[in-house]
Amino acid sequence: MLVPSGTLSPLQQHLLQELDLCDLPAPERSPESYLARDLDTDEIRDALPTLLWSGLVERQGGELGNLTLTPVGVASLRAAECDELTARLSAVASFSDTVSMGAAPRPAGLALRRLAEGTWTLEQAKSYVRTGEVGADRS
Question: CA neighbours within 13 Å on the CB side: how many for 64?
């Protein structure tokens, strides 16, 4: 089976990351397992048919059995994480142009760190270096 080419929603990616750590009981059987992971059980129930159909997740033990990540799910999760890191690295590389234009070292260092962590967008990092303030566009 090929890796699905669509992008994962933030909810799907979060769920797949949790399933990458361990199997989870069905949301109907143990909603507290999802709440402890900051996942809304209603949203999970809505997203689950698509995840099951696409082969990213499977149920073991029937309708109320455990949810487990499939090899296709692992591949999709890694692809999404790779895309996220590629975008972050690209932003860091673009930010180097801002730094090379003579930005003060202290604000540039903080902005670079936040950008690399994924806490700030490229626009926020540039704004911070220029004005000392972070714009309203928070990630």
Answer: 4
Give the model confidence (pLDDT) of 66-93 as tens digits. 999 999 999 999 999 999 899 989 888 8
**Which two structure tokens, joined as six digits, stand for 134?**
């972070």
Q: What is the C-alpha radius of gyration for the chain, rounded to an integer number of angstroms?
A: 19
Q: How far apart are the first and last CA of the chain?
A: 34
pTM for the predicted model, two decimal places: 0.74
- Looking at residue 54, its pLDDT comes to 93
Contacts of 67 (CB under 8 A, 6+ apart): 19, 23, 24, 25, 26, 48, 57, 58, 59, 60
Q: How far apart are CA 56 and CA 35, in angstroms?
A: 21
What is the distance between the alpha carbons of residues 97 and 26, in angstroms, rounded to a whole number? Answer: 49
CA distance 119 to 39: 21
Q: Which of 75, 13, 88, 2 is nearest to 44 (CA)?
A: 13
Classify 57 as helix, strand or coil.
strand
Question: What's the full length of the chain, in residues?
Answer: 139
